[in-house]
Amino acid sequence: MKKQQFVVIGLGRFGSSVALELMALNYEVLGIDRNEEIVSDMSELLTYAVVADASDEEVLKSLGVRNFDCGIVAIGDDIQMSILATILLKELGVNYVVAKAISVLHGRALEKLGVDRIIYPERDMGIRVAHQLVTPNLLDYIELSQDHSIVEMKVPVCLNGKTLADINPRVRYGCSIVALHRLNNIIIAPTAMDQLQMDDIMVIIGSNENIARFENELMKED
Length: 222
What we know:
CATH architecture of the largest domain: 3-Layer(aba) Sandwich
Shape: elongated
Helix content: 25-40%
CATH superfamily of the largest domain: NAD(P)-binding Rossmann-like Domain
Number of strands: 11
CATH topology of the largest domain: Rossmann fold
Number of domains: 2
Radius of gyration: 21 Å
Strand order of the largest sheet: 3-2-1-4-5-6
């Protein structure tokens, strides 16, 4: 099977973080940035890293960008450049385009261009931190849509030794425990008879309202 290839445009903090994590996951990554110093620093860390203007169609064509499976526009300080690079990736036929937005207005413009996924790094991190501050057992929070999320939560003392049948989260709270992290193991789609243990991490999916209700009930009992 052909290894997926990613092109990351903009190698600032966000773009370089995405690019390096993709490399760590054993994918091929082309990094593009106008800053020679940044590209020099990243050249030995990525599959390819080039100094280029991503708003120049001929440059992107010469780099073979149309052959990449996914394009990530991570430009954060120049909205015009971000939009131009996004348009070119879409016009060149890149299958899946992800773009970083630095404002709601920027995000709306990207949405109208048909971007497959828009990321608001600062906003998303703020949401995660806020949830973690008010829910001590909450480890991570990922927004799936405006109304639905996935959260990772440590099993509190009140649930230690209980089975999923005992808790019955789908019926009682309208959310589902879809996986359990236990030491170095991951239990996918745990059964009703799987027993929760202290230090387990529950992966919960549901509407924000129902997850909040589940969290609040646990905090009362813990």
